[in-house]
């Protein structure tokens, strides 16, 4: 608590962790390349340097605010330093900006413009590192790395994976996996959080735009898409719209214009997941174990569990994730010659997630050696395609998703939020008057801030102990506590990304506090505006149990080994 | 794949230290002393035993010049290229060693695994410049011809042992 002066103006501070936060609160956007409020403070980029009244220059990210401080943020000396830092970074950077995927969205590029770096006074000395294309999810290009360490800290601190780290030192320093192995050979779980925080094009999405586009222009291929819940609240901002606004109608319209023959809603698949998973849970609950049942929707989590906690793999639900549910059911649907019109079928998932690109390749999710979904495009790739086609997104008229897989319940749509899968599953167990029971569940603790929420749900006079966790480092701590017996749960939802899929590795980057909150709100509001709240009341999902998949639930809706 | 004797010896080294992150450097020092380098399999093995990721272990180990992941020769020759040695002509000594042994800036170890030639930033023996070390022995006031003679001597020693 106290008051400090920033550029001559008094600014009050309370519990801000550092001077940088106070400066930003005061309305000055001090540049940074290595500062993320959720990560540990690193102080590497030195762009947030400020000067005090004694002429001392220091990094404002790693200094606590003190009462009576007098801070200047923009003196000629500081401006000179910042420009020099950017010049030094540019000297060792692959400056092939025009053909870089990150161009226009690159923090280094933006800062160079903003700080008026018109030329680089140092000779270029970029290294020639090989580019790592081994991962189906992300591409690592060390030639564009500025060693800010954001990816290292998110991978280790938030995700507890530590697939990459600093190696060597000085001018030889790089960020790389151990022994410079290919990323696909490491413990990487494909969550993509490293690429979300990467300020440059050093880590980017391994894109599948090209083959999808080829199929779209091929008259002999019928292409259908499914759109995941979290995508619809993360597109609007890229086209000048409101943050967090649900623009599913416009996304459907845009996909139709891009040439997709059918556009379905993964919310339908989410309802199928809930139908199967809640059945599975009740069976285990009545049988008395083994507990906890762990959710299976998040592929980065499943991969993490296999690599770090193999003893918990049998606890993971065998129910398909929503994308696989819809993919599998649609495959059956299009097997009918009346539906496929003799054409080849291509199944595309539009996802907020980079790990889904790896999930669709998994052997235990293939049926007859064939993938249920052919390609996954992330939200970012969808935005790229819409822009590339010149579609004026903001001027599109909304369209409804196509039947028979275009309808989902409110429970299905909140899947994109941390806690959403659990809430949707428990909704199907709600007893009594629907509205009040659902309302009660909402306030049970399943929603709320923080990466870990523990709560109790009452079911037929029994207590169901449940937990919701997001962020793999947090999940790792929880599993440790479960293993040691310190904690006990019947049912645990795990999502690899903090806050859930709305903050997935394939979502548009630079989401600040307000955008995060708006995306979350966007999904909960969509639930409010949906007439059918419970997955087990989705009439289209229920009807396919009587027709398309009758008697084949186990074959079509469950993985057979993890 | 390393044979089991490597792991048995490593277990022996591991038993001397608490299974904690901070034991990493002393453990890999002993591994390097034992085999003259750190076999990559052993670094991963140690990381697992002390509860850190192999990425972290590699990050630490690759930071230090002293640690090597490549097998080294029987005789490790470290030519000092600190300021004093440099101005007293250490580079011609280094060049002679490399040409005699068929080595280069990229290739440090002879194919018969007898010699490894490296440079170090300072041996702390500036009064003896230009200096170099062969394993643990310091050789002062080197010249290219003295280097050639020394190599010949070491080769004979190796042949007779």
Walk me through the structure.
The complex is a heterodimer of chains A (562) and B (161). With 562 residues, chain A is an alpha/beta fold. Chain A is built from 20 helices and 17 strands. Chain A folds into 3 domains: 73 residues, Ubiquitin-like (UB roll) (Roll); 119 residues, 2-Layer Sandwich (Alpha-Beta Plaits); 348 residues, Rossmann fold, CATH 3.40.50. Chain A has a 5-stranded mixed beta sheet, sandwiched between helices. In chain A, strands 11-10-13-14 form a 4-stranded parallel beta sheet, with helices on both faces. The longest helix of chain A is centred in the middle third of the chain and has 22 residues. The termini of chain A are far apart. Chain B is elongated and about 50 Å long. Chain B contains 7 helices and 4 strands; from the N terminus they run ααααβααβββα. In chain B, a hairpin with a 2-residue loop joins strand 3 and strand 4. Chain B is an alpha+beta fold. A 4-stranded mixed beta sheet of chain B has the order 2-1-3-4, covered by helices on one side. The interface between A and B is medium-sized, with 14 and 13 residues.
Question: SS-based structural class of chain A?
Answer: alpha/beta
CATH topology of the largest domain in chain B: Glutaredoxin
Low-pLDDT regions of chain A: none
Mean pLDDT across residues of chain B? 93
Biggest sheet strand order of chain B reads 2-1-3-4
Oligomeric state, counting identical vs distinct chains? heterodimer
CATH hierarchy: architecture of the largest domain in chain B: 3-Layer(aba) Sandwich
Shape field of chain A: globular
Structural class of chain B: alpha+beta
Q: Assign the CATH superfamily of the largest domain in chain B.
A: Glutaredoxin
Q: In angstroms, what is the radius of gyration of chain B?
A: 18 Å
* Overall residue-averaged pLDDT value of chain A: 94
Spatial shape of chain B: elongated
Largest sheet data of chain B: 4 strands, mixed
Specify the number of helices of chain A. 20
Separation, N- and C-terminal Cα atoms of chain A:
52 Å
């Amino acid at each position: 608590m106290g008051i400090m002066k920033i550029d001559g103006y008094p600014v009050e501070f309370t519990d801000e962790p550092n001077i940088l936060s106070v400066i930003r609160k005061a309305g000055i956007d001090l540049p940074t390349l290595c500062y993320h409020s959720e990560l540990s403070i690193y102080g590497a980029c030195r762009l947030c340097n400020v000067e005090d009244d004694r002429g001392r220059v220091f990094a404002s990210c790693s200094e606590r605010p003190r009462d009576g401080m007098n801070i200047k943020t923009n003196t000629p000396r500081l401006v000179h330093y910042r420009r020099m830092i950017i010049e030094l970074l540019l000297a060792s950077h692959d400056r092939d900006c025009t053909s870089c995927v990150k161009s226009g969205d690159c923090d280094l590029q933006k800062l160079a413009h903003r700080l008026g770096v018109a030329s680089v006074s140092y000779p270029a000395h970029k290294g020639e590192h090989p580019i790592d294309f081994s991962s189906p999810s992300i591409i690592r290009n060390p030639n564009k790395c500025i060693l800010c360490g954001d990816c290292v800290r998110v991978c280790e601190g938030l995700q507890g994976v530590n697939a990459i780290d600093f190696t060597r030192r000085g001018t030889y320093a790089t960020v790389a996996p151990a022994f410079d192995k290919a990323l696909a050979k490491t413990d990487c779980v494909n969550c993509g959080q490293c690429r979300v925080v990467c300020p440059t094009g050093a880590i980017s999405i391994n894109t599948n735009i090209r083959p999808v586009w080829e199929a779209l222009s091929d008259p002999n291929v019928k292409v259908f898409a499914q759109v995941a819940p979290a995508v619809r609240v993360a597109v609007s901002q890229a086209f000048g719209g409101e943050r967090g606004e649900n623009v599913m109608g416009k996304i459907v319209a845009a996909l139709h214009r891009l040439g997709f023959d059918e556009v379905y809603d993964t919310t339908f698949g989410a309802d199928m997941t809930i139908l199967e998973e809640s059945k599975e849970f009740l069976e285990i609950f009545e049988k008395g174990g083994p507990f906890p049942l762990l959710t299976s929707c998040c592929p980065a989590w499943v991969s993490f569990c296999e690599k770090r906690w193999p003893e918990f793999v049998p606890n993971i639900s065998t129910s398909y994730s929503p994308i696989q549910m819809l993919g599998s059911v649609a495959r059956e649907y299009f097997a009918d010659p009346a539906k496929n019109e003799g054409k080849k079928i291509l199944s595309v998932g539009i996802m907020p997630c980079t790990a889904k690109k790896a999930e669709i390749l998994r052997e235990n999710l293939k049926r007859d050696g064939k993938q249920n979904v052919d390609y996954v495009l992330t939200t970012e790739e969808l935005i790229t395609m819409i822009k590339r086609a010149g579609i004026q997104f903001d001027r599109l008229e909304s369209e409804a998703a196509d039947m028979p897989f275009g309808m989902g319940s409110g429970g299905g749509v909140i899947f994109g939020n941390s806690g959403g899968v659990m809430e949707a599953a428990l909704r199907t167990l709600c007893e009594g008057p629907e509205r009040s029971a659902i309302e009660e569940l909402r306030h049970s603790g399943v929603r709320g801030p923080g990466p870990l929420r523990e709560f109790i749900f009452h079911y037929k006079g029994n207590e169901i102990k449940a937990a919701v966790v997001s962020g793999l480092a947090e999940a790792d701590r929880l599993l440790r506590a479960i293993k040691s017996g310190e904690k006990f749960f019947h049912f645990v939802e795990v999502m690899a990304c903090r806050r859930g899929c709305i903050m997935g590795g394939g979502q548009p980057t630079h989401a600040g506090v307000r955008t995060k909150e708006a995306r979350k709100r966007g999904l909960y509001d969509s639930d409010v505006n949906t007439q059918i709240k419970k997955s087990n009341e989705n009439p289209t999902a229920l009807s396919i149990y009587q027709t398309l998949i009758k008697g084949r639930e186990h074959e079509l809706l469950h993985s057979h080994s993890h | 794949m390393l044979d089991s004797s490597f792991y048995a010896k490593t277990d022996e080294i591991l038993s001397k230290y608490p299974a904690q992150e901070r034991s990493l450097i002393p453990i890999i020092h002993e591994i390097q002393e034992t085999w003259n380098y750190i076999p990559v399999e052993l670094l991963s093995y140690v990381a697992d035993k002390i509860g850190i990721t192999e990425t972290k272990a590699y990050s630490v180990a690759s930071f230090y010049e002293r640690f090597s992941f490549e097998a080294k020769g029987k005789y490790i020759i470290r030519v000092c290229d600190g300021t004093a040695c440099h101005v007293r002509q250490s580079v011609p000594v280094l060049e002679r060693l490399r040409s005699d042994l068929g080595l280069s800036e990229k290739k440090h170890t002879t194919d018969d695994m007898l010699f490894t030639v490296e440079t170090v930033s300072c041996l702390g023996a500036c009064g003896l410049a230009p200096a170099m070390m062969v394993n643990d022995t310091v050789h002062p006031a080197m010249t290219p011809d003295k280097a050639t003679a020394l190599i010949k001597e070491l080769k004979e020693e190796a042949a007779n042992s």
